[in-house]
Design brief:
Alkaline Phosphatase, subunit A
Length: 437
């Protein structure tokens, strides 16, 4: 039989035949999808469409310090606890949110509000760990946080981009919610950016030539092969080798963090703040294949002057979140990207003598937008003053099970830690199916 020839017209859409691409993907060869920055594959619409249909991503907007549900997603105007701000109707009849969020009010069809969290931990450190891990600490096992689990479940085995990136530039509260891979190992630890938009020490030093760089890598590979020959590959050694290979890929992916490459119109949409710029970087990262990005906005801990604090910070959240959802939708990414707003807890309904609200974990709110959830919906209900949950109370376990289910991950799946099976959520935990699309 004569060899079949594949014509190529020069279009990037046809640089790789669709059937061959899908066959390769199905066979588990993930190198193409895992290094989209090198191939610029998202500029080929046909291939980009196939990738977007198969890969899930998460962007977590972490409202560090504890934002107030009463000034955001669950306002109580006209009550003793409601404060000075009103509630406005949204694009979904019957749903009202704070008047400080007009942009999100117009986009409520993309978002599900959960108003019935009762997490029972009003401590910054304990609450932050709880809401990053989905369960309380266990002295006998180091649990991974949400980012590490999703890096493990959604990441590509041979990816050259990071699986888990966290932006946390403020100093307040940073040490209370560090990303942790726990028992999953350092392969799934976060790349933490605390001092700038670009990871430190990513660039090759100017006094090292390209040839030197290549030869050093080859020498390292040679020594590594000699060292491992005849030895059983331990977890630590294997993790070290994998990490080194990923560093090489990251050095080639520096442009992902450079938002100056974005059109000015896009940057203007998000606004000139650091939070907005980091949200743009988050979108660039997930577009290139990063499964999980956390963008922290601190510091919401408004024990005094709560209303002035929220009058400044909520409109910024409103602008950045709305821009992010629009941006993702326009690029065909929102249906496979879950955007979460979450904190370690909410704020008290009672207003203290300093006109502030204190820590409150008994009846507060989070939101889910995009992949796998019912937009334009509200789950749960608090009483007229916001002091307790009247209907649909859930804890962190149920929230995490819902997130996993929305992403197509079995929340009852277990990992083996030694000989001990450790499930993703505690036994008996169920997702909130009313939230799921």
């Amino acid at each position: 039989m004569a060899e079949r020839r594949h014509s190529f017209c020069g279009s990037p859409d046809h640089a790789i035949d669709r059937r061959r691409f899908l066959g390769t993907l199905a066979a588990g060869a993930t190198a193409l999808a895992a290094d989209m920055t090198a191939l610029d594959v998202l500029k080929a619409p046909a291939l980009a469409s196939e990738l977007k249909q198969r890969r899930k991503h998460v962007i977590l907007l972490w409202l560090a310090g504890g934002s107030s549900q009463l000034e955001t997603w669950d306002p109580k105007p006209g009550t003793l606890t409601g404060g000075p701000f009103g509630a406005i109707p949204t694009s979904v009849p019957g749903i009202h949110i704070s008047e400080l969020m007009p942009r999100m009010a117009a986009r409520m069809d993309r978002t599900c509000i959960i108003r019935s969290l009762n997490t029972r931990n009003g401590d910054h450190g304990g609450g932050a760990r709880l809401m990053m891990q989905g369960r309380r600490d266990d002295p006998s096992v180091r649990y991974p946080d949400l980012g590490a689990v999703l890096a493990r479940e959604l990441g590509q085995a041979h990816s050259r981009v990071p699986d888990y990136v966290t932006f946390y530039s403020a100093t307040e509260g940073r040490g209370m919610a560090p990303g942790t891979a726990g028992f999953l190992g350092e392969r799934y630890a976060p790349m933490s950016l605390t001092t700038g938009m670009v990871p430190e020490n990513l660039r090759r030093l100017d006094d090292i030539t390209d040839l030197d760089h290549v030869e050093r890598a080859e020498l390292r590979d040679l020594l590594s092969r000699r060292f491992t020959r005849g030895r059983s590959l331990s977890g630590a050694l294997g993790s070290h080798n994998v990490a080194y290979e990923r560093v090489r890929g990251l050095m080639a992916s520096e442009s992902l963090f450079d938002i100056s490459r974005e059109p000015q119109a896009v940057r203007d949409r998000y606004g000139p703040t650091q939070f907005g710029e980091q949200a743009i970087a988050a979108r660039r990262l997930i577009e290139a294949g990063v499964p999980f990005v956390r963008v922290a906005r601190a510091w919401w801990d408004s024990h005094g002057q709560n209303f002035e604090t929220h009058q400044e910070m909520v409109p910024e959240l409103d602008r950045v979140m709305a821009a992010l959802l629009d941006d993702l939708a326009e690029r065909g990414l929102l249906e496979n990207t879950l955007v979460i707003t979450l904190a370690e807890f909410g704020r008290t309904p009672e207003i203290n003598p300093s006109l502030g609200r204190d820590h409150f974990a008994s009846a507060w709110s989070a939101t889910l937008s995009g992949a796998g959830v019912k937009g334009g919906s509200v789950y749960g209900k608090t009483d007229p003053n916001g002091r307790s949950v009247l209907d649909g109370q859930i804890g962190p376990g149920e929230l995490f099970a819902t997130i996993y289910q929305a992403l197509g991950i079995d929340h009852e799946k277990s990992y083996l830690v030694g000989s001990r099976p450790v499930p993703l959520t505690n036994p008996g935990t169920e997702p909130v199916r009313a939230v799921l699309a």
